[in-house]
């Protein structure tokens, strides 16, 4: 498939004098998700226990602050250190990790025991069955069933560390009347910055020409008759290429399961040409996503440099960066955390489909309260077997964006130790939209590219 000339002639683009932004790569969180050495000998249990150990003191701080003088039916509540220390009819609070037993949630061990090794969870839209699903709280000692009306209005999923207040009303069942989350991690006190950053996701190059991509390129390079001098960088948040179904390589491994390839030379070449045409005008940061030729396990590692033949020379500078998913950014003093969307899309499967009215903002907001951006890993989202959970937040960003979402949404969220601008970045292939973030005011606006 020949690449259209619009992606080839960089000399045709006007030179734009842009506002400069200092994109720092030396702060401690920048390489948080880079796997320099890999060992798959570890089990996943240490990751769960580490998450609980790290967040338990922070949940205890929140619980003590809120429930220190609390009473239920005239009886003062007491703290129980372990889940199995809860006593019948005694008002108490306890800390643990949420586990949700759900009818439609995949269980890999169960599937393997049935000799069904071809487990594909990508097509599952929801794990929910309101009549059969159960919520448990577990720690090192065991687990206890939770119930209560509070769960009808609370966003929860497997892997979240919480404190629950209530009492055991029947054997093995704890009725919850209130929930607390970990103390918010510290936020960098200053966020001085200037200029604007463009964020897009879901470009989904297929090797077939699409006018939206050409218009997007013209917008970013300032050729649509507007002033693009304030745009300092472009972040591409995953799902940049898509393999046509008829082109997918499907072979069976020795266990009989199908192996699907996310690699398409035509798609990659088109992406490479698109980025190469932009680079003389605007720096680009590229994150992988679910449909890109990268490992499926989180954190996804940077797309290999060998994929970008035309843009190769720019990889030696800060003008073109292939990054991980998730990824921390720093623009001047502004700290930004972003993902390509798999974490939020998976949590969405844990909630009643109509309860959030398609909005992902409640989930993004909840993940900040949970202080963990990928709580469902490794239960329903594949991840590397860490000993320490890197998805537990030790710093709260000024901006948190999620790529490949159904629609643009944004909110300035006020937390106890700072404010966070949360942004749902729409899928460009479906919406023709990208987001422009003002790093000074934290305003986020959507731009629609119509073909």
UniProtKB/TrEMBL annotation:
Subcellular location: Nucleus
Gene source species: Cyberlindnera jadinii (strain ATCC 18201 / CBS 1600 / BCRC 20928 / JCM 3617 / NBRC 0987 / NRRL Y-1542) (Torula yeast)
The organism's place on the tree of life at top rank: Eukaryota
Domain DNA polymerase alpha/delta/epsilon subunit B: 197-409
Lineage: Eukaryota, Fungi, Dikarya, Ascomycota, Saccharomycotina
GO CC terms in record: delta DNA polymerase complex
Keywords in alphabetical order: DNA replication, DNA-directed DNA polymerase, Nucleotidyltransferase, Nucleus, Transferase
Protein's UniProt name: DNA-directed DNA polymerase
Main location as per UniProt: nucleus
Pfam families assigned: DNA_pol_D_N, DNA_pol_E_B
Family, similarity comment: Belongs to the DNA polymerase delta/II small subunit family.
Gene Ontology molecular function: DNA binding; DNA-directed DNA polymerase activity
Catalysed transformations (reactions): DNA(n) + a 2'-deoxyribonucleoside 5'-triphosphate = DNA(n+1) + diphosphate
Biological process terms in GO annotation: DNA repair; lagging strand elongation
EC number: 2.7.7.7
Residue span, DNA polymerase delta subunit OB-fold domain: 43-179
């Amino acid at each position: 498939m020949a690449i259209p000339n619009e992606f080839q002639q960089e000399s045709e683009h006007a030179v734009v004098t842009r506002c400069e932004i200092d994109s720092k790569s030396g702060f401690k969180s920048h390489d948080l998700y880079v796997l320099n050495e890999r060992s798959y000998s570890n089990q996943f249990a240490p990751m769960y226990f580490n998450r609980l150990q790290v967040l338990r003191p922070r949940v205890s701080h929140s619980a003590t602050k809120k429930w220190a003088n609390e009473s239920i039916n005239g009886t003062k509540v007491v703290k129980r250190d372990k889940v199995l220390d809860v006593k019948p009819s005694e008002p108490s609070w306890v800390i643990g990790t949420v586990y949700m037993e759900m009818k439609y949630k995949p269980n890999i061990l169960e599937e393997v025991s049935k000799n069904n090794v071809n487990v594909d969870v990508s097509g599952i839209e929801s794990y929910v069955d309101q009549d059969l699903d159960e919520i448990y709280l577990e720690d090192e000692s065991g687990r206890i069933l939770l119930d209560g009306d509070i769960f009808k209005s609370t966003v929860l999923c497997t892997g979240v560390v919480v404190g629950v207040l209530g009492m055991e009303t029947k054997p093995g069942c704890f009725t919850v009347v209130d929930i607390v989350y970990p103390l918010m991690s510290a936020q960098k006190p200053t966020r001085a910055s200037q200029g604007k950053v463009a964020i897009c996701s879901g470009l989904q190059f297929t090797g077939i020409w699409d006018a939206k991509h050409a218009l997007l390129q013209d917008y970013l390079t300032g050729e649509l008759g507007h002033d693009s001098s304030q745009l300092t960088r472009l972040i591409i948040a995953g799902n940049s290429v898509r393999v046509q179904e008829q082109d997918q390589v499907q072979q069976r491994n020795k266990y009989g399961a199908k192996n699907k390839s996310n690699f398409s030379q035509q798609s990659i070449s088109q992406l490479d040409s698109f980025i190469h045409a932009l680079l003389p005008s605007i720096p680009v940061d590229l994150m992988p996503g679910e449909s890109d030729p990268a490992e499926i396990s989180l954190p996804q590692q940077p797309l290999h440099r060998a994929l970008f033949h035309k843009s190769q020379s720019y990889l030696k500078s800060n003008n073109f960066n292939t990054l991980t998913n998730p990824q921390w950014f720093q623009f001047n003093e502004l700290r930004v955390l972003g993902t390509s969307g798999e974490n939020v899309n998976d949590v969405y499967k844990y909630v009643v489909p109509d309860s959030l009215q398609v909005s992902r903002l409640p989930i993004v907001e909840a993940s900040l309260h949970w202080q963990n951006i990928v709580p469902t890993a490794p239960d329903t989202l594949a991840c590397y077997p860490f000993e320490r959970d890197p998805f537990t937040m030790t710093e709260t960003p000024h901006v948190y964006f999620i790529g490949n979402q159904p629609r643009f949404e944004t909110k300035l969220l006020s937390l106890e130790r700072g404010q966070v601008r949360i942004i749902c970045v729409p899928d460009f292939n479906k919406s023709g939209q990208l987001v422009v973030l003002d790093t000074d005011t934290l305003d986020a606006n959507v731009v629609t590219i119509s073909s």
